[in-house]
Amino acid sequence: MKKATTKLLSLILALVMASSAMCLSVLAESKYAYKKVTLIGDSIATALRMEWRGEGAPPEDIKPYYRYNEGSGLWTRTGATHGTWIENSWPARVVRGVGLNEKDLYNYGREAFSSIEFRRMLDASYSPSAEDLAISDGLYAEYGADLQGRGLNYIQSQIPKDLADSDLVLLGMGSNDIFSYAMVHYSNVTAGLETTPLNKAQLQALEAIDGVVSTLVSQGLFAEAWAKIIATAKTVNALEQTLLIMVKVILQGVQKFLQNWDVIIDKIHAYNPDATVMAVSLFNATEGIYLTDSIKLDLGQIMKPVFDTMNNHMKSYAKKTGYYTYVDCTKTSHPGWPTAMEIVQDTSQLMVYMMLCTHPDYDGQNYMANQVLAALPEKDKKTENAAGSLNGLAKGSDGRWAMYKDDRVNTSYTGLVKQPANGVWYYVENGYVNWNYSGFVKNEKGWWRVKDGRVDFSANSIYKQPANGVWYKATNGHINWNENSIYKNENGWWKCTNSRVTFKETGIYGNEYGIWYVLNSKVDFSKNGPVKVNGKTYTVKAGRVIA
Q: Looking at residue 93, what is its pLDDT?
């Protein structure tokens, strides 16, 4: 019984630490015409661990910020972005939702940042404690610089200007306060600076890994640091005692967030009292961790009071000051957890679960953006401009491109539309250009490859159609329906029949580069040796017929 209790306490400790995935966010809506947006947010805002849902690999400009997992077959967001625009993150969706794009965003999205780091951005006179400052300096060294390599001093001089130039501010932070404070408290305990329930041997074991843990913390790798502590505590039978320490430090982290939050809000308001500021709630990403598949005891509810306390403070300060709008994102979806028993049986995967399951998935990012867009205040609505009657594809007073008829958006229209001014064809869905759509769309001239809402006449590869899951060959953006050779995309070389991959063809087929052995429509480069097809034997080496 004691062994089982120890394992469950280990899991509870991990849940406490997994609160790193709490989220906040901010602003926008299609009915509003903002001109500039400032984002201040943590890894929720940079879409850390979000899966890529486009065809194939992410575009080259953001591909370095994704990692391919051969087991799942998915690309997921990873690494430091330093203010890079990440398509399909909630801030990007919000910015596009108000008719703007990346050039209109001042991006202060930074992974691993807590309210301490964001307060330092906004208040050069702020002096954290020595422990907080040591962690904060390490985080700025790892994540703080912008894309040009400019660090804290530059940011402190620039962010007031960007806020003053913005009419919309997106704000999201909170979860990393708990992680940072837990790490500070851990160091104090192992150094013997505080009263502790640990005995001498346990303290020595934990102190022995202090260098490794400190290095991980300085790099913002909090999940990895806690996985190391939990594994070590387990070996010296110190999980229960470690849990008691961490419960205390969670409360300290919450208190620090509440203090910094008010100052951050006040500073933003001082720099631009006219800006619309939208603050998105924390969400409890530890919900849904059940004891077993059959015992639906949700251990994630342990963290509910922590989230409620922080969310309630944000709501009350919004009501007190009127400086910002609180946006409820408590229903944000995230990758599902395994059961508690599955986790404690293999603690080596704890870090993976803590990083993956505590961040919004693709749908969660979309939900957050929609919550923000729906919450924009009525006072910011703009009246129709008097530029004359709008007809055809045009940009409305709300900043969105749409199909108009007599100044009204024709919401019944869906299809491809050519913009005479630039000759570009756009995909319109229910009256509005859908900048998030990539796939094939039909008009009277045939089927065309659309990427990010516009026809891509440079498309010369094989692409998946989201509507039916079928892969088609495009040439100059168009499906010709008569291509029957072997063609390449990011997933390999494929045999097409009438411009379509059937996944059924197995045999010997050729293209301009040679003759190949194809298995289930894909060239099998691992094939070696004799292959008999239709009574004829071929010699194959690395998938290619050599005799």
A: 92
